[in-house]
Design brief:
Elements lengths: L3 H6 L5 E5 L17 E11 L3 E12 L4 E5 H15 L8 E6 L2 H9 L4 H7 L1 E2 L2 E3 L16
Parallel strand pairs: 1-4, 1-7
Antiparallel strand pairs: 2-3, 2-5, 3-4, 5-6
Length: 146
């Protein structure tokens, strides 16, 4: 008999892009050029060496591409605020955004502390982590003369 968490661990939701650009909000999707909407996502974060936290974060979202875009600077600021009280020793450590949890699971995590294993059992991992290179408007690549 399969356990519930085995089945759920196989589930994946959304593509993810961690936006390192402070001056670009990605109001248009970098994949399809369609308009993005603002949605709140309960993000699952892993911080080295072994810390899992949930951040309820406003992100840009393209419904067509199923792409979640989160600003790196905003995530890091929220993590610092969260970790100052919980575990200040891990502030500044490497981190990875793993996926999302359902809203009801995030609310339950607010009411009582979920351990790392339970949080990961409830998580939906991202289908893929994407990267995009920003090319400023009006710039183009010149071809070399032959």
């Amino acid at each position: 008999m399969k356990k519930k968490h085995d089945k759920r661990a196989m589930k994946r939701k959304h593509y993810f892009f961690l936006n390192p650009y402070d001056d670009c909000a990605f109001t248009k999707c970098p994949k399809c050029d369609g308009k993005t909407k603002i949605r709140k996502f309960p993000l699952v974060m892993h911080i080295d060496p072994n810390q899992i936290i949930l951040l309820n974060k406003n992100c840009r979202y393209c419904t067509t591409c199923d792409l979640v875009v989160a600003r790196q600077s905003e995530i890091e600021s929220l993590m610092i605020d969260c970790l100052e009280e919980m575990n200040p020793e891990v502030i500044g450590n490497d981190y990875l955004t793993l996926g999302v949890v359902d809203r009801k699971d995030w609310k339950e995590g607010c009411n009582r502390e979920l351990d790392s294993a339970e949080t990961l059992d409830r998580a939906y991992f991202f289908k893929d982590m994407l990267t995009f290179e920003l090319i400023p408007a009006g710039w183009y690549r010149q071809e070399k003369d032959k």
